[in-house]
């Protein structure tokens, strides 16, 4: 378990050709690197994963080959590109012929000033070549790309006009897996970025250097770096550690690796409960979900992180490990205060475990200023089981955005146990909520507003459950 030799060179495949970048800062973005390379199709709009102007394609593994996934190059740190295969908009035309995604955008009048267009084209390209897709392209796949001047109808028309990918290099490429990510130990200007391939090596690095900062999808850290100028002297990437990217679905539990991106979870979790299917599309945008992980989401301990209410409703536990010890704790005990958790320095979220049987009925609700791609004002994960007489045998009511931490409201759960849902019992649950919630008021919503939302979501859950059970 020795350290990989240190290098100051980032080698990767760029538009099908080997590329090498020397001495880039560990927190330089891939976007900056590409633009310095003369590939200026990808642009900076926001530098925080919101606009999609910086979109590029990353080649990701899938069973039997690979897939192209759109990612925000403004959030990928340059060393994260080491060993990857990246395509930019400049490479999509083949043999002098525009790609169908490019032609469709032009034909539908999907571009005016053109600032956003390369990003839209890249996302549309990824959607057209998505292996599981049938029929025409889904305009929802373009969420995460913003356009200020054209309007989305012609862009949606461009998407709907595209069907199966045409024969050629990019279609043939899909049948080959990408190169696996290898050990990588990069240093530049006294800053270090390591990407080990074993859990043991991650832990020994952290034992030697208590300053290490784990980095998974970088969708939080990238924003901290770009907009708040946070700097970390020693980053340790979790992306190449198989133990952290496992998914298992057994008779006893569902296990989700802490560093498994959300898109991969969705691809692997056959028969996921309703709550997961409702939660996923409300979490950021497709390119963010291609990188973001549940480990990263929980580790931030944000009171408005969306992962926690969904996982609390499923009674999840987190498997943690450090060089000193391993432990599994219920997620209900994980958050200790505003943006604080039980995680100790050098400790990792290895996996999230969801016990079986899964609840018979579960729902996720997210109330935000915008319906899609926005930060929650209040998020709720609810789950319940009824007996044959319609009495509640198990209830879990979890919230984000109503206190300093995500939490379950046990008093409200107890108020409905053994009861049928009706107006009187809903009132009882609501008054238990009333006593337990302690919302923070901010620019997204006053404390009173959050309380009202929590009350009405419980009622909504009850009526929706009854409708589903009828
Ligand atoms: C545009 C945009 C939209 C977003 N929308 C949403 C949304 O709708 N809902 C939502 O909840 N969040 C949202 N986020 C926040 C972010 O995407 C999530 O919190 C994401 O899950 C973080 O995962 P990551 O892998 O990118 O974490 P990273 O950025 O890599 O890491 C985040 C933190 O977690 C630590 N960490 C990472 N993995 C582990 C691990 N396995 N063990 C211990 N510590 C670890 C890191 O050290 C770091 O402190 C959004 C972010 C952006 C930029
Ligand atoms: S620059 Fe806006 S998402 Fe990257
Ligand atoms: S065409 Fe101008 S921002 Fe989209």
The CATH class name of the largest domain reads Alpha Beta
Q: On the 0-100 scale, what is the average pLDDT?
A: 95
Number of separate helices: 15
CATH hierarchy: architecture of the largest domain: 2-Layer Sandwich
**Care to count the β-strands?**
20
Largest beta-sheet characterization: 5 strands, mixed
State the domain count. 3
Ions, cofactors, ligands: which are bound?
Answer: flavin-adenine dinucleotide, FE2/S2 (inorganic) cluster
- CATH superfamily of the largest domain, by name, is CO dehydrogenase flavoprotein, C-terminal domain
Distance from N terminus to C terminus (CA atoms, Å) equals: 58 Å
Return the structural class.
alpha+beta
CATH topology of the largest domain: Enolase-like, domain 1
The radius of gyration computed from the alpha-carbon positions, rounded to a whole number of angstroms, is 23 Å
- What is the share of helical residues? 25-40%
- Strand order in the largest sheet: 2-1-5-3-4
Q: What general outline do the C-alpha atoms trace?
A: globular
């Amino acid at each position: 378990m020795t350290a990989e030799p240190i290098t100051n060179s980032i080698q990767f495949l760029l538009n099908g050709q080997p590329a090498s970048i020397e001495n880039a800062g560990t927190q330089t973005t891939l976007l900056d690197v590409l633009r310095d390379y003369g590939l200026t199709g990808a642009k900076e709009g926001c530098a925080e994963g919101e606009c999609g102007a910086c979109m590029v394609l990353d080649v990701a593994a899938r069973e039997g080959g690979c897939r192209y996934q759109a990612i925000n190059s403004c959030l990928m740190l340059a060393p994260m590109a080491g060993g990857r295969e990246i395509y930019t908009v400049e490479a999509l035309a083949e043999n002098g012929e525009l790609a169908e995604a490019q032609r469709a955008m032009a034909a539908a009048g999907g571009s005016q000033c053109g600032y956003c267009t390369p990003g839209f084209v890249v996302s549309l390209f990824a959607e057209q070549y998505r292996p599981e897709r049938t029929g025409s392209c889904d305009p929802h796949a373009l969420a995460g790309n913003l356009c200020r001047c054209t309007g989305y109808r012609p862009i949606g028309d461009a998407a709907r006009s595209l069907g199966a990918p045409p024969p050629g290099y990019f279609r043939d490429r899909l049948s080959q897996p990408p190169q696996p990510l290898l050990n990588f130990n990069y240093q530049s200007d006294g800053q270090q970025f390591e990407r080990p391939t074993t859990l043991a090596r991650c832990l020994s690095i952290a034992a030697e250097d208590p300053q290490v900062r784990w980095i998974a999808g970088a969708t939080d850290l990238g924003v901290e770096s770009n907009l708040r100028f946070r700097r970390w002297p020693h980053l340790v990437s979790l992306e190449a550690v198989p133990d952290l990217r496992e998914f298992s679905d057994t008779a006893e539990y569902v296990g989700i690796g802490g560093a498994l991106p959300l898109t991969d979870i969705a691809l692997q979790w056959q028969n996921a409960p309703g709550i997961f299917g409702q939660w996923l599309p409300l979490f950021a945008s497709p390119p963010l979900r291609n990188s973001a992980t549940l480990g990263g989401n929980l580790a931030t301990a944000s009171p408005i992180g969306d992962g926690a209410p969904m996982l609390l409703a499923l009674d999840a536990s987190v498997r943690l490990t450090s060089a000193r010890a391993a432990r599994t704790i219920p997620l209900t005990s994980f958050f200790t205060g505003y943006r604080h958790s039980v995680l100790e320095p050098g400790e990792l979220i290895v996996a999230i475990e969801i016990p079986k049987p899964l609840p018979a009925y579960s729902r996720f609700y997210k109330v935000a200023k915008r319906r899609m791609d926005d930060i929650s004002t209040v998020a709720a994960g609810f789950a319940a089981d009824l007996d044959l007489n319609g009495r509640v045998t198990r209830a879990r009511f979890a919230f984000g955005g109503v206190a300093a931490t995500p939490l379950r409201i046990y008093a409200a759960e107890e108020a409905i146990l053994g009861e049928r849902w009706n107006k009187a019992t809903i009132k009882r649950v609501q008054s238990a909520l009333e006593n337990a919630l302690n919302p923070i008021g901010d620019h997204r919503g006053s404390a009173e507003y959050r309380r009202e939302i929590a009350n009405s979501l419980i009622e909504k859950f009850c009526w929706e459950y009854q409708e589903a059970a009828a």
